[in-house]
Amino acid sequence: MEDSKYYKRTIHKEEIFSAHLNTTRSLRIFLPPGYNEMLSYPVIYCQDGEQFFNFGRIATTLTRGILDEGLEPVIVVGVDVQLATRTDEYSPDGSQFNSYCRFFTEEMLPYIEANYPVRTERSERILAGDSLGGTISVHLALDYPSLFCRVISLSGAFFEKTRERIDAEADLSWLELYMLIGTEESEVSTERGVFDFVTDNRLAQRIFEQKKAALHYIEKPGKHVWGFWQLELPEALHYFLS
Questions:
Q1: In 10 A of CB 75, how many CB atoms?
Q2: pLDDT-derived band of residue 1, with 50, 70 and 90 as boundaries?
Q3: Which phi and psi angles does 234 have, rounded to 5°?
Q4: Which InterPro entries match (predicted)?
């Protein structure tokens, strides 16, 4: 049984209106043990915020890591998404993709930085996402390199359009990427059909390496589910915060 101290954590829930998306978006903000608003903290911005907190258990994992494993205290911002519009917002060919990117960088990011003591250097911001959440995280880094340079991709959807976007960059030596894919993800059913995530990740891996990105690539047994990602999330967090 886990020690109860790991469940004593502070999570704020807030809502902000997005003019770009013409809707209100919910945010979940995890404040680390020993939080002091007079200090400053690195920050992790998670796509699929509700899932990262409820299924990924990121708050519990970080609390344990900070208290017992030497992880640097960090603030986490989970950006919730509606499943009905998720593909439209996260996919590079989605109807709301550009609007979501502008919401993320022009509305959400300034709001957090105005209200929480997060560090604003790009090396102190980490983007994290699973599946299409990994896709949008990579695109945000590529399109806003002055804002982001570190990404956690859990079984990212590196379909052809995203691979072409990566390949369009001449040099990615500034990008640091933690990239996980499960070997049982060769036939993943999505609302757009069945995809071979393993092959797509391997193809993206080669492009990242050709472009000299600082890539930490992991391939191990696992399916396209949170049961896999939850178990692997601690290693990803240690990679950037230890």
A1: 22
A2: very low
A3: -55, -40
A4: AB_hydrolase_fold, Esterase-like, Mycobacterial_A85_antigen
Cα 132 from Cα 139, distance rounded (Å): 10
Domain count, the chain: 1
**Contact criterion met (CB below 8 Å) for 94 and 60:** no
CA pair distance 124, 43, nearest whole angstrom: 6
- 201 CA to centre of own chain: 16
pTM: 0.96
Handedness of CA 225, 139, 117, 29 (dihedral sign): negative
Residue 149's domain spans which residues?
4-241
Measured CA to CA, the distance from residue 226 to residue 222 in angstroms comes to 10
Rg (CA), the chain: 17
Q: Which residue has the tokens 């993943």?
A: 188
Structure confidence by residue, pLDDT tens digits, 54-81: 999 999 999 999 999 999 999 999 999 9
On whether the CB atoms of residues 190 and 132 are closer than 8 A, the answer is no
Which CATH number characterizes residue 10's domain? Answer: 3.40.50.1820
